Amino acid sequence: MGWCNSIFENKKFSDEDILLAGLSARKVETGRFYNRFRGRVMFPLREVNGNIVGFTGRILPQFESQDKQGKYVNSPQSIVYDKSKLVFGLDKAKQAIRNIGIAILVEGQMDCITAHEAGFSNVIASSGTALTFEQVKLLQRYTNKIALAYDMDSAGRLAAERASEQTLAAEMETSMIALPEGKDPDECIRKNLEGWKTALTEAKPIMEYFVEEIISPLDLATVSDKRLALKKLLPHLQKIANSIERDFWVKKISQIIDIDEVSVKQAILSQPKSVQNRQEETARPVEEISRSRPELLSEQLLGLLLRFPSYIDSVVSRLPIDQVVGSSFQTLYRLLVIYYNKVTVSGSDQIDQKQESLNFAEFRKWLIDYSQDTANDIQVLDRLALLVERNFFETTFEQAQTLIGTSIKELRHYYLNSRLKVVTRLIFELESRRDRSSADEERLLELLKEFKGLAEEIRQVSL
Questions:
Q1: Which of 97, 204, 363, 430 could form a disulfide with 208 if both were Cys (CB 3.0 to 4.6 A apart)?
Q2: Is the pTM for the entire model greater than 0.90?
């Protein structure tokens, strides 16, 4: 690894140091190190104070046919780099955002760089990842207004919807910039600067944009399209955390569709609680999100396994019990697996082969006899039964498979990140000791090895 020898080893960095910094990777087959960013143009990732914490590498055209990692490669999670808390370009844009009073959010680094070169210094980027609650709270230090300038294709619209979910939950004043001719900001600024300027001045409140986009192809003279319009608009209404703003749009939408305002409010209340909980959870402090989101995912996963027990074996092989969040859910997860294995091995008819769902009454009866904390376990089970009836009664096997896969991925990601934070703290504590013993040195090496393994697992889960 010549680049390492010539640059980093002269500064007394080892191969392991470079790996932990995310600058190199290691081949599984040979164990050899190689440059993670070879054949790429590099973009430094700076935190809000301007310190470089990682890199993004964009593949050079001549290497595109040889590389299998994708157009962009980012630094992995490390002690200093947490992508969920970094906003690209904010170190350069924060003063302009304060002065102008609004931040313009784009998706890619090139979009952001091109905008700054053209004099639009209040532009920042989410770097192609979903906007997070932590990023929104960071932006709110400088402004409570944000305009989304995402690509106008279907992927860009979906990204804008997800971003608005976070900004509206944080009660940011959110608008949408519709780019001319469906271009991305980079291309629009370079080839149609006046069009970009016009798009900025004509930015619409995000709810106005969603309403127009959903309503325009429909015929509201028909009952079926009225119902469809309301159905499509409900998720956007639920994003709005500010009650005054939500009431305004409830009234506005009822007038547009020409239905009673009470009907719109009732439709919101009748939505599955899992959707409402997600919006409420998004608006909570980060400390509450770290507790509640994984618990909701654990609850959802158990509900799906009650409804579709044929997935139990697959889930058990992918999700250890300690990665389920909540002691009550861990207990029920373990008992559900025991019961499932018991009835499948015995060939019992306690699994309905037609519906492939558990005979809930028989499982509940068995749990009463087997559980060591009967009252609590039965209470959790009954709550899950209501969740299944409300949210998953009409769910198909294919839909369940997708939901289960998403739940497992997020729970694993949460567990690995939580452990990574603990390991990082322990490393800092040991490194800060002036007189480390030989036992401390051994422990430090173990922690560094664990950190490296966790960082690699997080990278794999994130793919």
A1: 204
A2: no
